[in-house]
Amino acid sequence: MTIRILHTADWHLGAPFTWISGDAGAVLRERRIEVIREIAALARARQVDAVLVAGDVFDGQHVADALLDRTLEILASWDGLWILLPGNHDPARAESVWTRLVRRGPPPSVRIALDRAPIPIAEGRAVVLPAPLADRRSPDDPTAWLDEAPSPTGALRIGLAHGAVEGLVATAQRVANPIARDRAARAGLAYFALGDRHGTLEVAARTWYAGTPEPDEFRYREAGNVLLVELDGPTAAPRVEAIPTGRFHWVERRLELAPRTPAELAARIEALRDELPAAPERCVLRLALDGAVDLAGRAAIDEALARLAAAVRHLVPLDELVLQPAELELAALEDGGPIGVCARALHERTRRAPSEEERAVAELALRFLWQERNRLARGEGAGG
Ligand SMILES: [Mn+2]
User: Is 159 a member of any domain?
Assistant: First the structure.
């Protein structure tokens, strides 16, 4: 009879998003918790035998007690078996987020895989072999024990681990928490459920990273899923369905800009909205701007960026634009008084500044002068 599980990982509950200013951080924090309620609903709707959470359930050891209570309340909304694995963000130390959770009295349907001990599921027709992490970084393969792990005759063997499959990321350094790429074959696993990588990926035969159910970084386009896994037998190929659960899209774009009319430059920024994979309020956008523009173009871009920032959930600008005032613009600043003198001096500064930082400061000052000059020309008065 088919064994059916949900495989998920990297919930990172309590992730602070402190680098995201304003309300967006709070919205993203809240969403990470609410997606768990949707996973519970999926578990019920698809009638799975267990939900396997492959590590980094919590973002760290010091998440608030209130978050632990709320997590238990949400997990209780499905009364089937949850198996939670300690990962590198929430390792099973002597005192940890897990010992705190245990003291709060989780229901029997919530199993925390603190030890390298098989956990039977589906009335013993399958056994989950967990590889909990006890430290943030270890040079040893935590899944080595799976090769020799005992299991009842006839029971399917399902591995559950958190770490870096060897060879997945090219690096000269030794990776922490390495996992042998052929572990599933060596340990006779019908399926190997992994966490750590936040994108969804079939990394080897029978071996999957579920990815995080709610995206939280720009690197992975294929994040935001849970995996419904159906196992028909110890040698049958697993049937894996990626079910989308993510609400927010983390999108990266790069624009190379050259001097154009202000309207054209603003239109380039505006056009980004139509290229987003979802409604702007469901997008966290990192926008790199490269190239050179004049003062009027720069002002148009600033206004367009402000409109874009108001439309998307959060905008992270990586602004590398170089300011190249047109001769006409510099002439317009020549008022025969202090503004003209300052503008010429600042323009020289932008071209000869000894450091990138000083050049940026001089550009900012020049942009400010340009704004003030236009305000005065419109008769609005300084600072109005
Ligand atoms: Mn993680």
Answer: yes
